[in-house]
Amino acid sequence: MWFRKKAGKKAEAKFFDRQKQKPVLKCSICNGEQVAGFKDIHTGKFEEVMFIRNEGDLKDFLEMYGIDRISKEY
Q1: Which of 14, 24, 43, 67 could form a disulfide with 39 if both were Cys (CB 3.0 to 4.6 A apart)?
Q2: For position 29, what pLDDT does the model report?
Q3: Which of 36, 60, 64 is nearest to 49 (CA)?
Q4: Residues 27-61: pLDDT tens digits?
Q5: What is the secondary structure of 1-61 as a DSSP string?
Q6: 52 near 60, Cβ under 8 Å?
Q7: 68: DSSP letter
């Protein structure tokens, strides 16, 4: 799912299950691609939410879900 913020509008807050999921930034060591999403704590299944192209995309993702810290996985 792509998220594109319209100019002049604040990102709409979205929610995730903080009891079952943790925010994760999946990073490729080969080509540097990054995908933000949520990893199920119990099963380890990763749910992709947004492709991260730059710091602005990451900031938008963090604001959209009210996250202040995200872990990286390679």
Answers
A1: 24
A2: 93
A3: 36
A4: 999 999 999 999 999 999 999 999 999 999 999 99
A5: ----PPTT-PPPP----TTTEEEEEEE-TTT--EEEEEEETTT--EEEEEEE-SHHHHHHH
A6: no
A7: S
Amino acid at 29: I
| Domain residue ranges of the chain, discontinuous segments joined by + | 21-73
Q: Which residues contact 4 (CB under 8 A, 6 or more apart)?
A: none
pLDDT at 14: 78
| Tokens found for residue 50 | 């947004």
Name the pTM for this structure: 0.78
